[in-house]
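Q: Mind making up any chain with structure tokens?
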Amino acid sequence: MLKLSSNNVISIGTVCEKGVIIRRVSENPNYADVCRKREYFLVRNGLADIPQGFAGYLFFEKPSFAVPEVSYLLEPSLFYLHSEDIVKINPERGTLRTVYRRNSRHNSILVTERCNNYCLMCSQPPREIDDSHLVDEIKQAIPLMSRETPSIGITGGEPSLLGNRLVELLKAFGSYLPATAVNVLSNGRAFKDFEYAKAIAGAHHPDLMLCIPVYSDVSSKHDYVVQADGAFDDTIRGIINLKTTGVKVEIRVVLHNLTFERLPQLARFIRRNLTFCDHVALMGLEMTGFTRSNLEKLWIDPKDYQPQLKEAVSILHTARMRVSIYNHQLCILDESLHRFSRKSISDWKNEYMPECDGCTRKRECGGFFSSAKLRYSSHITPFHDQ
């Protein structure tokens, strides 16, 4: 697991920058002089011969020589940083967060911690705070991202609570990264307002998908899982409005003890009412956030819901809907489901358990969230294909 945040950044230069600083990282000593002023140069060794003119310098070893005015000492856990990565540093607090990694296919950007749901298994528990500064910081980072970035995830909290500022972000992504797919993780409720759905469509992003959860075909069950009365009706209206305005929608279903039993009925509901959606993702549980405190209520060994999962996939696939299985290990899935399984867990928190050692299909398996050490299936069995 990669450590994306550090609280142990030490200013070792003579100048301490103020406020939050967004910078791209460079390891190219021959970088054009005009561009150096907005980048931090990454020094991987203690050599004194470092290029001049960069906005700042990042060291992993304390230098024995006089450093440039703006210089920081980083802890070894951040050694994964490379050229074209983007970092956010708060020098006064001594913190650093990796905002974007050039070589990752799993860049996800938190735009707010606020939310109007309170899901029992939320991996990012909401906070009612003023975090509007996040959008301003993201807008600074977008122009620094590689034009070859395959995809970006926008997450929260609930991104739709940003209102028109979400539209601003989508326009910025479309302008600077037109070939990059943008997936917005949303509960969809705010888009019951047709004008808001139209505004999202009006951002004219060339490859936008809203990823919206539906946890049951029974409204009261969905509302219980998300801990919000009326959420099911809002969400379904939101999905319909988004599709009416031409926005792509993915339906997400997190599988756990409160959702698995009616999974076939939910699949039939989707087949009857939401066939126009672009993708359905059936997802394993992440053992973090509220899941930890509600674990006894939520936990079921994924091996035990294979009949329901198999039936649901068959219903959706037969209806010619695109369906995928996320966050599951191949060895616990029914063999007929292997072709629907995807390696979906973000690379920075994707791990494998000791039982996986020697498995011949490890490279194609979805693996585990790093938090899965808390509890995972007792049926993990490595493949030994000949």
In short: Residues 189 and 235 are 5 Å apart (CA to CA). The chain has two domains: 5-100, 107-374. Residues 231-244 form the longest helix (14 residues).
